[in-house]
């Protein structure tokens, strides 16, 4: 599975890369800091799974990039990975296949979406959680 990671924080991007490198069947096609770069990569390369931050390098909007990428590569799975707690921002992430970590106050959660299903999005060999990132960072 070809994976692209879009995250402006180098430490978090490296951590996500290490998760995929530890698993068979995943190849990191691109690991980049900017949402605009992600759209350009998708114009020239096929990507199966994208982890997209909400706000990337130069305050670029990852949610705008999600919509643009889905128009270019509708079969790509996109998971929005963010530390933002604002449910309005999360609700604006329509077009993404998952938002992680989930917000139980968001309309999608209130409509009956399973928070557990959102914690381990399809296609990921691991769960994404603030706790896992924090504990891994503190171990280094």
What this model shows, in words?
41% of the residues lie in helices and 19% in strands. The protein has 140 residues and is α/β, with parallel strands linked by helices. The strands form two sheets. The chain has a five-stranded parallel β-sheet with strand order 2-1-3-6-7, sandwiched between helices. The longest helix has 12 residues, at 10-21. It starts with a strand and ends with a helix. The relative contact order is 0.15.
Query: How far is it from the N-terminal to the C-terminal residue, by CA?
Result: 28 Å
* Topology as a string of helices (H) and strands (E): EHEHEEEHEHEHHH
Structural class, from secondary structure content?
alpha/beta
Question: What fraction strand?
Answer: 15-25%
Strands in their spatial order, largest beta sheet: 2-1-3-6-7
Oligomer category: single chain
Number of strands: 7
With helices defined by DSSP (H or I, 4 residues minimum), what is the helix count?
7
**Percentage of residues assigned to helices:** 40-55%
Major sheet details: 5 strands, parallel
What's the shape? globular
What's the alpha carbon Rg, rounded to whole Å?
A: 14 Å
Mean pLDDT: 75
As residue ranges, the low-confidence spans are 105-120, 129-140
Task: Offer a concise description of the structure.
This protein has helices at residues 10-21, 35-44, 62-72, 87-91, 107-110, 115-119, 130-139, and strands at 2-6, 27-32, 49-52, 55-56, 60-61, 77-81, 98-100. It is an alpha/beta fold.
Helix and strand layout, with pairings?
Elements: E1 2-6, H1 10-21, E2 27-32, H2 35-44, E3 49-52, E4 55-56, E5 60-61, H3 62-72, E6 77-81, H4 87-91, E7 98-100, H5 107-110, H6 115-119, H7 130-139
Parallel strand pairs: 1-2, 1-3, 3-6, 6-7
Antiparallel strand pairs: 4-5
């Amino acid at each position: 599975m070809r994976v692209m990671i879009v995250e402006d924080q180098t430490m978090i991007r490296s951590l996500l890369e290490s998760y995929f490198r530890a698993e068979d069947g995943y190849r990191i096609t691109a690991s980049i800091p900017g949402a605009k770069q992600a759209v350009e990569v998708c114009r020239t390369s096929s990507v199966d799974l994208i982890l997209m931050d909400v706000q990337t390098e130069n305050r670029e909007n990852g949610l705008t990039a999600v919509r643009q990428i889905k128009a270019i590569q509708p079969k790509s799975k996109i998971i929005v990975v963010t530390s933002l707690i604002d449910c309005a921002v999360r609700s604006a992430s329509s077009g993404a296949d998952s938002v992680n970590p989930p917000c139980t106050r968001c309309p999608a959660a209130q409509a009956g979406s399973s928070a557990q299903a959102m914690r381990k999005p399809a296609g990921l060999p691991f769960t994404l959680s603030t706790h896992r990132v924090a504990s891994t960072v503190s171990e280094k």
